[in-house]
Design goal:
Length: 178
């Protein structure tokens, strides 16, 4: 039988090959531990911008802007109209701050570098407890230092020995008081 008369074999259907972009897996980033002091300003900036702060640094440095009023009030909002809202603990503090409003406005604008604050609004609320500063430990007695030096005399002279002498003297002083 001639080739022309032979039945044709069915051809295999070829799938259409579409060019699709290769999907890259996201790279895993390994980071070293980062201290909170590095992360806090960035996080605080985003949270204060949501609350209407034009300058989030005002709340961070409020104790430097108005140190005499830092225990009485805390800035909560700075509106675009130039109204600085302060949260105060009591009505007497509110009156004191309203009397000192020109001073606070001047200091806040000086800190921000432009005229962002035009007037003060006070609202009564709960203030966070102030952070207590650590009290330095009293100096150890002479007998405690002598005991610690005698105990550590076999160690080579370096920073470790000095630190151990200080630690031992503090511990020995506490035992003397008890």
């Amino acid at each position: 039988m001639p080739k022309e008369m032979q039945p044709k074999k069915p051809q295999k259907k070829q799938a259409l090959k579409l060019k699709t972009p290769a999907i890259k897996k996201p790279e895993r980033r390994y980071r070293d531990a980062v201290g909170m002091a590095r992360l806090l300003p960035k996080q605080l900036k985003t949270s204060t911008q949501k609350r209407g702060f034009q300058a989030g640094q005002l709340i961070l440095h409020w104790d430097k802007v108005c140190p005499e009023y830092a225990t009485l009030a805390l800035p909560t909002k700075l509106s675009y109209a130039g109204v600085l809202t302060l949260t105060v603990a009591s009505d007497s503090a509110k009156q004191e701050l309203l009397l000192a409003a020109p001073i606070i406005v001047q200091r806040a604008n000086g800190f921000l570098g432009h005229t962002a604050v035009e007037k003060i609004r006070c609202q009564t609320g709960i203030l966070p407890a102030p952070i207590k500063k650590a009290v330095p430990a009293p100096a150890p007695s002479a007998s405690a230092v002598e005991w610690a030096e005698k105990t550590c005399n076999t160690l080579p002279q370096n920073d470790l020995k000095t630190a151990l002498i200080n630690l031992g003297a503090q511990i020995y002083s506490k035992k003397d008081k008890e």
